[in-house]
Amino acid sequence: MSRALRIGAGVAVAGAAVVLVLVLPHWLSDAKAAEFARAGCFFIAIVGLNLVTGYTGQISLGHGALMAVGAYTTAILTANHGFRDLWTIPLAGLVAMAAGFVVGLPARRLSGLYLALATFAFAVAMPALLKRFSGLTGGSEGINLFDKALNHSTGALGHVHVLGRTLATNDFLFYLTWGIGLVLAGAAWLLVRGRVGRAFRAVRDSEVAAASSGINTGLYKMLAFGISGFYAGVGGSLFVLVSNWFVSPTTFGFDKSLLLIVGAVVGGLGSLAGMALGALFIQFVPDWAADLSSAPGAPSVFFGAAIILVMILLPAGLGGLFRRLAEPLTRRL
Amino acid sequence: MIVAVDWAGVAQQVVSGLSSGGIYAMLAVALVLIYRATGVVNFAQGELAMFSTFVGWTLTQHGFAYWPAFLVTVLASFVGGIALERAVIRPVERASVLTIAIVTIGLFFVVNGAAFWIWSPEVKSMPNAFSTRPIRIAGVAFSISDLGIMGVSLLAVLVLWVFFRFTKLGLAMRAAALNPDSSRLTGIRVSWTIALGWGLATALGAVAGLMAAPPLGSFDQNFMQPILLYAFAGAVLGGIDSALGAVIGSLALGVFLNLLGTYVSWIGTDLRQAAALAVILVVLLVRPAGLLGTAVVRRV
Amino acid sequence: MPLLELRGVAARYGALQALRGVELSVEEGEIVAVLGANGAGKTTTLRAISATVRTSGELVFAGERLPRRPEAVARAGIAHVPEGRGTFAELSVDENLRLGAHVRRDRAGVKADYDRVLQRFPILAERRGQAAGTLSGGEQQQLALARALMQRPRLLLLDEPSLGLAPRLVTEFFGVVGELNEHEGLSVLVVEQNASIALASSNRAYVLEVGRVAVAGTSADLQRHPAVRRSYLGY
Known about the structure:
The complex is a heterotrimer. By secondary structure, chain A is mostly helical. Chain A has one domain (30-266). Chain A has helices at residues 3-23, 30-55, 63-81, 88-107, 112-132, 134-137, 145-148, 169-193, 195-205, 207-212, 217-242, 254-267, 272-292, 298-313, 318-325; strands at residues 143-144, 159-162, 165-168, 246-247. A two-stranded antiparallel ribbon of chain A has the order 1-4. Chain A starts with a helix and ends in an 8-residue tail after the last helix. By secondary structure, chain B is an all-alpha fold. In chain B, strand 1 and strand 2 form a beta hairpin. In chain B, helix 1 crosses helix 9 (224-238) and helix 5 packs across helix 6. The radius of gyration of chain B is 19 Å and the shape is globular. Helix content of chain C is 40%, strand content 27%. In chain C, the strands form two sheets. Chain C has a six-stranded mixed sheet with strand order 6-7-8-3-9-10, with helices on both faces. A four-stranded antiparallel sheet of chain C has the order 2-1-4-5, with helices on one face. In chain C, strand 7 (155-159), helix 7 (167-184) and strand 8 (187-191) form a beta-alpha-beta unit. The mean pLDDT of chain C is 91. The chains are: A mainly alpha, B mainly alpha, C alpha/beta.
């Protein structure tokens, strides 16, 4: 397939994605729009996680905790310092990026299972830490922006006025999350095509070979964690808005980290379409499972079975299938 | 300042710690078994142990005494583990480690959910494995239950050791874990050794769960999760690719956490878990290979 | 009927066609060499036999279709000593030898072979408890051969045994192989880069080029073959 045609196809797909995001809310009920918005938050976090797992080849079980950092940054700034919630989003990203770098510090020397365990410990510790520093975080009660900072919570009252139009809150949140998602995904795509991306892939394919080629593997691993931290932070920040402007230590327990890595792999590493599918998977399949049966534990069984089935049938993830079906059209990352 | 140490108390706490450590050790060895055979940490290990325990409990509710129920459950878990591997892991045997890891995560959800679905969420209580009377050794009162659990754990680990070291099948399994390609050339059916590994790991988990449940008094479907955490910590401390390390690390951790909980008054259950996490982090930062694991030396 | 027969065997690694219709045979009691440049398909030929690569074509061993799984090929009586020797570095010499006999069920025979192998390779007896990875290159080569012998195979596949060995050790090794062939009737198919020692130690030989047999004949004939002399013997 000629280069020009591939680029054209890539642009077409990107364009189709933009159009889809613009148009979808018209067909969605209010509640569904909120759910899609949540999926959008996961999408952003998964794109970030993919930088660590798909590109640098490291397993992180701690990205839920990085989302928590972003979420609490937004909550604290909005509730206690009078920021408007929307402006805190990039700040949340930056704070979580710093946290990501910190998590990335041990990542320089650890690999594979050891790194997974370290990030696991980080994820399990986070809720406890949040409860402990209750002066800052509001402890186990969490922070409720609806109560504390209603006027700074965009759309909390039901409608948002933007660009001269009035949108229902959930529609607004849908556009916000997926809009930011597309922009950040595009940024990730550019990053991955460049020098940094090549270094990441070198680290994934063979750390030893990469090191011998003069690539500072430790630095790139840390960088991957830092950048993915930014993404997770933005995702976490948006998640607060989408969760009725509330966050508590249990919002981002270890289960969220688990969900994110499931979403990343089930979706399919290395494929943007896959990541979107993965985000939708972890948002909607648990709900569908709950619809199938409300008996205690049953939804879990179905969700788990769905994960296993997808991995058995499509080891490369949902994105792999998508890619195979749309071979000539999709641009692979 | 001379502090009068209550040696009897310390001894009791050490034995109690070894007893908990023994339970962690069995789960840790199960983790190491599967890790060495497949390169994957089985996220569902704890839940499988929990499920086995519930099966055992059900048997005790239907006329079985503790030990007959124990035996049947452990055997059933062995078979179940093999069946599970064939059904769910074998199809992705050749896929990436990450894929297999996600399958075990899926398994975690399935088993956890199934346990809630099959048995009600109300707490259960398990008949005692050992007498609850204390026994006096050298003038110090020890719990027979603690000693019994220690004994069972040691026995389980010993049996496994003998199996791997001295039997043909055990040797074949070790070889398959070290070098699957060469093993195949030797005629070893590597795929089946992995299934067998799962069977043994699941059986071990069952022993761990069945030992852990009675002393708890009451337990529910989430009872193995903290134990899994301690098992991870023990395995990391001892070296995740060394079974001996996993045992020693777990025993040491058990004693450490127990002493910590007894002698440092502000450490409650919550903080015991935090202490275990801290152990994991410290070990990973200072010496990732743990006490006995192979230090990861990458020769360029 | 030959012990081993390959007819029109093809094999590929993904998109790369490594074997394009190889025809060769090994009679019972023969030592057959396979020569060729790097990438000619020599190692792949052995892999095709031991089913560690996917193949098409006919592979017949002792009159029956060769199974297509490595474990089954071992059980059928073929021992493959691969590139890199395939020893289990972390296991002891003793354990490596015991693994060699994995497919066998005759305990007494295994014990007898174990003793014989240690007699034939005294250095292994000396280092019995040591981890195999701590042995020198030459010793590991002996261990690899010993392990294969523990299997009591009918056919021995050797992949570049001379690799990494000092010339004296190479000669010694081929000497042992020749002995085994003469005294115990062990059939051998050996892949070698070192054409001169291979031809000197074998009955017949094949020269592979680009996945096909280019020249075949008795080793004596090939030693005199002008093209072979030029390309592989260097004179």
